[in-house]
Amino acid sequence: MSAAAAGTSKAAHGPDVASKKRKGPGALATAYLVIYNVVMTAGWLVIAVGLARAYLARGSYHGLYYSIEKPLKFFQTGAILEILHCAVGIVPSSVVLTGFQVMSRVFLTWAVTHSVREVQSEDSVLLFVTAWTVTEIIRYSFYTFSLLNHLPYLIKWARYTFFFVLYPMGVTGELLTIYAALPFVQKTGLYSVTLPNKYNFSFDYYTFLILVMFSYIPLFPQLYFHMIRQRKKVLGQVEDYSKVE
Amino acid sequence: MDALALEASGKKLPNGSSITALPPTTPAKRKPAKKAKKAVVFFEVEILDAKTKDKLCFLDKVEPNATIGEIKSMFHKSHPQFYPARQSIRLDPKGKSLKDEDVLQHLPVGTTATFYFRDLGAQISWVTVFLTEYTGPLVIYLLFYFRVPFIYAPKYDFTTSKHWVVHLACMCHSFHYVKRLLETLFVHRFSHGTMPLRNIFKNCSYYWGFAAWMAYYINHPLYTPPSEFTNIQFILVTLEFFNFCQIGNLSIHIALRNLRPPGSKTRKIPYPTKNPFTWIFVLVSCPNYTYELGSWLGFTLMTQCLPVAFFTLVGFIQMTVWAKGKHRSYLKEFRDYPPLRSPILPFVL
After folding, report:
1. pLDDT at A5
2. Where do Low complexity bias regions lie (chain A) (predicted)?
3. Above 70 in pLDDT, residue B285?
4. Residue pair B231/B164 in contact by the 8 Å Cβ criterion
5. β-pair partners for B50
6. A195–B41 C-beta distance less than 8 A
7. Domain at B43-121, CATH from 3.10.20.90, 3.65.10.10, 1.10.390.10, 2.70.70.10
């Protein structure tokens, strides 16, 4: 009782069964990325030091934004390169996800804080700038050490633990800043276009900012729980190994 | 389905008909209605969950020429929540889905076949999705056109625009979606019966959202029609271009339909026919998308409305992605595929 004519049947898989191997960054790309991440770590350290020095000089934490305004704009905007890194393939992250994260930072830096002068003296700005600074110093040093294959556990632990406080802190600062900007945007009609015009288009930046604030409600928990899951995966492994021994 | 087993169990076939005391023949198989049966090697089929590898179902005495579609019906009996449309049956947990038409004995399996099952999630028919997503824009645009209350300032309720291009735009937009609805009902022959349920929310948001956004501005009391420079002649040219592309799009849909006999899922290379609108097949794989782009470009120029331009752009990007995919599968499937063709724009894209 032999089986059916397997010999005449085509293979169930097509010719493209061979899995596409992910190309890791070559030596040149790795060198470039190390330099990039070192520069970014240094940049955010400059911002951190700038904040500390300004605080000590003034004796209060109000209005510290002005002391780090330029390096903040420079280094936060520079992060746009990271979208390119993903697009080109030297960093194995999603272009869409990275793009979204970077552009939301850039949006807050330029379209809110820079554009609405009146919020620059708000304390909420210091709140998110501090959160960003600590996060980025840890994140970029994490990448630097990872690329050099010498990642100290402390940095890995910090990256996947500090976010518990820094994420909510940053989100609070961002939301309060946008909220503070609202009355000025409405009064001046900033970035808004009204009818009639020859493009038959209108845009109300005030309403847009309100929608942005609401978008935090679904988005923030998703990102937060994603980090928690990542933490279990990354830090959980080490605990398992130590248990085995 | 093993007709004998069905008859013995007294159950109905998936299509609702039940087996009466007929000789064991079905349209797909040609078994002689002899009393004396030939020795037939029956297969055993076990179905495992692709993720957990749990044994979900065991079927014995399966006809060698049973199709995957029939096996799906059998699996549906033991697992009523997994109707056949949401079953993905494969030889390998991570492999490609087998087709409903695949015949058991032609697959690389022994007499005991092991298949892996993945749940595709709740499914909805393509026809339902198309009808819903196209009816929305038709109705929504008209709500704005007639300026029903709560959209514009109360003094404009139920007024009509004084610009004749606005009336023209309404006719074009409405015609376009009526055409799409009729094509869904009478022209298109779908390869797949169903798509995941969540698609209807995604698709309707896209079509309904954009329709509302465009209609709001075109029918706005403060709408600015094309200036004196771009006068009546210009509007009529855009209208002609729009109509040209609508007819072109319909011609392509009909040509594609005619490639496929009713009820089948065959795929053939489309070629130009006697209809001049199909001659574009010489240069393009998916001219239906080319014509669609043309229609919306015409509509954009006619209305001079930035949201319409955005809609055209987003649609163009999506159609280009689809056209490139279709072009690639044509190239993979047909060795003799005409090399001169581009996916969507002649020589360019």
Report:
1. 37
2. 1-12
3. yes
4. no
5. none
6. no
7. 3.10.20.90
